[in-house]
Structure formats: structure tokens, C-alpha cells
Amino acid sequence: METGQLVAALAAGVQSERVLFREQDTAPYECDGLTMYKAKPKVVVLPETRDEVCHVLRTCKSLGVPVVARGAGTGLSGGALPHVDGVLLVMSKFSKILEIDEDARIARVEPGVRNLAISEAVSHLDLYYAPDPSSQIACSIGGNIAENSGGVHCLKYGLTVHNVLSVTIALDDGSIVTVGSDALDSPGYDLLALTIGSEGLLAVVLEITVRLLPKPEEMRVVMAAFDDVTKAGDSVGNIIAAGIIPAGLEMMDGPAVAAVEDFVKAGYPLDAEAMLLCEVDGTKAEVADELGRVEAILKESGATMLRIASNEEERLLFWKGRKSAFPAVGRISPDYYCMDGTIPRKHLSLVLRRMREMSERYGLRCANVFHAGDGNLHPLILFDANNPAEVKRAEGFGAEILELSVEVGGTITGEHGVGVEKINEMCVQFSSDELAQFHSMKAAFDPTGILNPGKAVPTLSRCAEFGKMHIHHGQMPHPELERF
Amino acid sequence: MPLVDTLCERLTAREPVAVIGGNTKSFLAGRLTDEPVSMRDHAGIVNYEPTELVLTAKSGTTLHEIESCLRDARQMLPFEPPRLGESSTIGGVMASGLSGPRRMHLGSARDCVLGVRLINGLGQHLKFGGEVMKNVAGYDLSRVSVGAFGTLGVLTEISVKVLPIPEKEQTQKLECSQAEALETLIRIGRRPYPVSAASWINQALYIRLSGAASGVESAAAEIGGEVLNAADQFWSELRDISAQEFKSPGRWLWRISVAPSTPTDALDAFCFDWAGGQRWITAPPNDYSPFERASRLGGHAICFDRHRGVGTGMQPLEPEILRLNRRVKEAMDPHGLINRGRLLEEATHANESC
């Protein structure tokens, strides 16, 4: 379809200065947080009203034009990568906090509101919004819905899906519906759970009601150094076995610690093979109690050094180091590629050992950041994007890590989403029947497939081409398809 | 032939299939059209490692077996599912999606499910989610199958998040009216107390505190009231909907789900749980007005009476939501073969009775 024709159709319902199609105007939107993949959208639309969103959807549906919704563009799996023949629906102008109900402890917000802005807006009420992805200063709540974002505190406080009461969504045909409610559950099927984490393939999010929690009276963090990664991993199991669910439980390996310390000067132990941050929160009495127990367990587990942040400033500094891990690694390498597998924690040392072997084999360095409490591993593969051979090797390395995650009983993505990045690995994690089930669920919402096509769920022929189909009961699925 | 294979075969041959677990919740969400098969023989704990905080069991495993296994490792199902009978299975627990008092603090059955295996309407045995806390690969079909009463697929295996049993639990009893109870909870809800349940019944508010002993004691001192003796029995009876107050001869029991801060005068509840989010009322037989009353408050109602004659007893859905529900059902069970008569089927019928 001609660009001019599409622009004219869109401009019939959206102010024309917010319909961008010249190359210099669309170029800033060519990628999200995963910069390895770039594509220029045919048209970028920045709607300001629900009517405008619905107009875009109706227009695109009638013309068969793909629509990719985008929040703040911080996603790490290419979920908001534009479609070259499609419209990029940028939701950043939906940036209002519509209502804060302190008695009900809920906030009603538009999708373009930044994650951290919600907590900031209710901070004076001693409330906050719990999920805190590391990008929370920039990422939008609409994007969090699309990806079911987690954060460093999700072992205790849950993911996005556990902290959202309802979402109002626009469907492919421009109709608007609210799933979920202010009650804790809703009649019929759990469409809210289906919407959250659907990566923009089922609907466009227009409004979100989130739960707010009372701020803990006190938060204390302890830092522990280990001379052995296995010991650090075991200490996590020991804390949980003692009946303690810390608010945050994060691990970094030696290379990650070195990169962060050089960048942030957080006082991290440079001689450690692994470092753990364990945060406990609650009332003063609870925190004092748990902190003592955590300290004892870490010592017994072989920690070579223990430090409790002595004040709030130091606590924030300890966390700043962890939350700056990605940019810190960005300083020591022209580019890095962040993986997101989740593994049963007991396999941590096996997985780390296998990754060291891969690192040697691919000739690429790797630093590890680990949401240790919930098993979500973020290996950062260091490479140079200007070197095509290194890019290929980085992709191969990453894919192998994800396959290893599946092999040990985990998943290819814990919180970043599949997007375009891990679409091939979906063929490893799911059988063709399972993928077909996902496709029919997609069709239930979006029968013509205009919403974010080509993402999240691979076609069966793509899997056949990829050549790594999930083998179910020793049989190749779809034997009728040609293989390469 | 193993039960799962038989069910797959029947569905592949386009035969209708009806399944139940321990048959303890058959009075909920409509009556099955077809003769049901029990999943009870498809039982056993498949994997449980306490330090991973995950338990995986075949759907016919009894809730009793799972809870005693967890108790041995000082762990628990976080959502305290109602035990409506000895034969209750984990499959039935998830299919009904019911949660007990701890739901307000640690989340619901749906919140705690990590993965399922199910047989869809095409007779395919599929696996969604997994055994890890964080997993965003593919649509969240495990959570969607919770509360679906088996209509989206026959649940065959379930992985669920488990948590440690708190070191200490203590319940404070504060005598007050229902309205005062709600005001107190709104105030308490703004403080970071380790509240794990909050219910009002018989002119008293009961607040359960759970966690480290010191934290429980300091919060109890600030909240006030008297310490309840025999608190375990109190919470068990509330959890299992078995307290005397729930038995009201000649009247039907209804569960109303509303925003917790909904004023108490809007509903004549004899009991609330979840800090006001789950309210229990009774109504004369064949009076379906609770649907309308709940809906006006932005909530929904479920009829819990075993003698209800018509309808599914579930809140009729708004047209747009009903349309999406039907499409989701079609996506999972295109020929409409599984658990006919349950959940959606008679929604319109119940509506007419209003």
C-alpha cells in the first residue's frame, strides 16, 4: 500500500502533525532497547485520545496494515520493533495519572506513565507500586503490561500480573473493553492474565489500574562476597530453606562486579567470584530479626565478607550498583547482548560452568547478573556490533544459553519477552501443537493478525526452517514439511 | 489404557468429555451435561523441592496429600484453598480457582500457578508455563485455565508456587461493627504490618498477623484488641466455608466479590474476608438479585447453594466480555467438547432468571 494513501486514511482521524512518515521523522523509532534489530516503520502515529487509537486500529484493520504499539521503547527483546509495512503506534502521549485512591490503595493510570512515576506520585502517601524493573526510571507501565515485567523485588512482591487489577484495552476492530475490575477477581475466564505479557499481540492497552502497597517501614540490605559461585548459589537455597523470603536477592559474578565497581564505586568486593545482595523489609522489629538470621546463614554458607548498609544512602548505593549493571557493562564493551533465561536455581553452577565453556568456544566475554531468588539469569554477552562475525557469534552464544535454560527445565525468557529476539528458541521450548494453540488464541483476539505480527510466537514453518523443533515423544512434528 | 490417553483419544474422535476431581465442588458453576470421569486415579506428586519453592503434581492428587507433604517441609500453598471435602484434588482446586483468607496477602490460586499440562479440545496434551517463578514465553495459558472449571482443557498436571509456613501467627480480635471494621482496615492497610488475613464476622474484626515473631508481636501491640485463642480453628472454618454462620437453612449462600473498600451498607453481608474484598450474603431461594446488586457495585456474585435449580450460578457476563470468553473457549476447545454445561454454557439462562 502507498504511504500517501495510508497517511491520508490515518490523518482522517488523527491530527496530521502527529502522523509521521518522512524518513527523518520515523528514524528515531527504528528500534527499541534491543538495538541489534532495526526497521523503519512506514508511518508513526502518536495518538492523544482513545478515539484516535481506535481510528488507527479500524483503519489498519480495513487496509490490512500491521500495527505495532510502543511504550517508552526500553524493551529488550525487540517487541516494539517496527514493521516496515506498518504503523508504529507510539503511546507516549497517554501519560496521565488519572486517579489515586489512597483508601482503596489503587492508581488508575494511562499506559505512557513511567513505572517509577507511579511510585513517585504516591510516595507522600507512604505507598508505592511494587514491580521495579531496572529500567523503571524510563519504562512505561503499558510496556510493563505487554511484557509482564518483573524487577529485583518480585520474589516477594510478584510480577506485573500480580499487581494489576484491571486494564482497558482496544481490540483489533477498535472496540474498547475493560478486563479485570477493582474487585480481586472477575467472572468468566481470566482475560487479564491473558492480556498481561501478550507482547502487544492481542490488544492495545489504554488504561491500567494498579495495586499500591504500603511502603515498608524499614529496608536493610546485606552484601556478601563468595570465593565460589556454587557457594553463593547454595546460600540462596539456604536462606529460603530457613523460611525467609527476602524482598530482594540478587547475585552478580566476578566480571559483572568488576564492571559495576569501576562505574559506580559502590564498594563491591573486587576479589570475589560472586556477590550477593539480600534485602529484607517490613516493620523495624521484623527487619532486625530477619537480618540477623540472614547474616548467620550467609556466614555458615561460606561468605568471605559481609557488609550491611549502614544507612539509607549506602543501601541505595548498593542497589545503584546492581541497577547500573547493564550500563556498566556497556562501558567495558562496545556492545552487549542481554539474555533472560530462567532456570531452577539448583542448576545454577552447572549452567554457569557450561556458559564459561561457551564463552571460550565463541571467543566472547560474558558477565552474569542473576535474580537469584527466582532463578532469572541475565548473562551479558560482550561483543562489537561493527564486527559482523562477532554479531553472529554473539547470537549463537545467546541462543545456546537459552537452549540450555530449557534443557535444565527452565524457560527462554523470564521477564524480557520473546519479541523478535527469542522467536527461534520458542521452537525449542514448545511443541508445534503448543505453538498452534498460541496461534489460535491470537486469532481469538485478532483474527486478521494486524497486531504486532511476526513477534512472540513463531510460525510452524519458521520452526521447521530453524531446524530445532521441540521433539515430542521422539517424533518430529509435521513430518510433511521440508527441512533444511 | 492410561486415563490421559483415553481422554485424548475420545477428544480426537470428537466425543464429548466431562471431568471432575474429587467431586466436592460440583455444585458450583453449572451442571455437567455428560457423565463425568474422575481424574482421581491420575495422581501423584511429580516433583517437589522445598528450596525451589515449587511443587508439581498430577491433577488427581488430593489437596490433603499435597498439604501434608508441604507441611513436612514447613511449607504451604500460599492461597489457602477451601477444603470442601476430603477428596478435593489439586486439579479441582485450580479448575475452580477458589482461594482462602490468605489470598489478600499472598495472592490467589491464579497468582500461584506456575505451569500446567492440559488436554485441549483437539485431544492434544500440551504444556504451558513451567516450574520457575518467572516465565513470559508464550501467552499465559496456565493462569487462564485457573477458574475455568475445566472448560478450556482437562488439567493433567499443575506446578504451583509454595511458601514457607510463617514462623509465628497470631490473631487479634477487635469487637466492632462491620463499617468500623472496614475503616480500621483501610487505616491498617496503609501501614506495613504483616497482615495475612482480615475478616469480619459476628460483630468482630479478626486480623491475622504472620511472619517473624518480633514483627508479629510489635504489629499486634499497635493494632490492639485481644489475642484470639483457637485461631487456627477460626481461620480453618472460614477458609473451608464451614463455620456455623454459613449454614442458613432455607436461604441460599452467595459470595460477592467487590473492591475491598466498598461501603458495607451497600450489601447486607454477614461476613467479609480479604479485608472486605470477599463478602458473604444469603438470599431467599431462587432470588437471583445478588447478580444485579454485585454488578451495580462493580463486582460480581457466585451462588454457592447446592440446591440451586437453574443456571450456572455465575455472574452473567457483559456482552463484550462474553464475546471474548466464547472466543477463548473456541480457541482451546473448537468443537465445544469439554465439560459441557459448566461455566459459560448457561450464563444467559441465569441472566433470564434475574
What does this protein structure show overall?
The complex is a heterodimer of chains A (484) and B (354). In chain A, strands 15-12-14-13-17-18-16 form a 7-stranded antiparallel beta sheet, with helices on both faces. A 5-stranded antiparallel beta sheet of chain A has the order 5-6-10-8-9. Chain A is of the alpha+beta class. Helix content of chain A is 36%, strand content 19%. Residues 471-484 of chain A have low confidence and may be disordered. Chain A contains 17 helices and 18 strands. In chain A, strand 5 (97-101) and strand 6 form a beta hairpin. Chain A folds into 4 domains: 3-90, Uridine Diphospho-n-acetylenolpyruvylglucosamine Reductase, domain 2, CATH 3.30.43.10; 105-214, Uridine Diphospho-n-acetylenolpyruvylglucosamine Reductase, domain 3 (2-Layer Sandwich), CATH 3.30.465.10; 218-326, Alpha-Beta Plaits, CATH 3.30.70; 333-421, Alpha-Beta Plaits. Chain B is 28% helix and 23% strand. By secondary structure, chain B is of the alpha+beta class. Chain B has helices spanning 3-12, 63-72, 90-96, 103-106, 109-112, 141-145, 178-188, 213-223, 231-239, 289-296, 319-332, 347-353; strands at 19-20, 37-38, 45-49, 54-58, 75-76, 113-119, 125-129, 154-161, 163-164, 168-175, 195-201, 204-211, 226-227, 252-257, 271-273, 278-283, 300-303. The chains are: A alpha+beta (484), B alpha+beta (354).
How does CATH name the architecture of the largest domain in chain B? 2-Layer Sandwich
Terminal CA distance of chain B:
46 Å
* Computed CA radius of gyration of chain B, to the nearest angstrom: 20 Å
Tell me the domain tally of chain A: 4
Write out the strand line-up for the largest beta sheet of chain B, numbering strands in chain order: 13-10-12-11-15-16-14-17
> What structural category arises from helix and sheet content of chain B?
alpha+beta
CATH class (first level) name of the largest domain in chain B: Alpha Beta
Query: What's the overall average pLDDT of chain A, rounded?
Result: 93
Biggest sheet, spatial arrangement of strands of chain A: 15-12-14-13-17-18-16
CATH class of the largest domain in chain A: Alpha Beta
Q: How does the major sheet of chain A shape up? A: 7 strands, antiparallel
Radius of gyration of chain A: 23 Å
SSE pattern of chain B? HEEEEHEHHHEEHEEEHEEHEHEEEHEHH
Extended strand count of chain B: 17
CATH third-tier fold name of the largest domain in chain A: Uridine Diphospho-n-acetylenolpyruvylglucosamine Reductase, domain 3
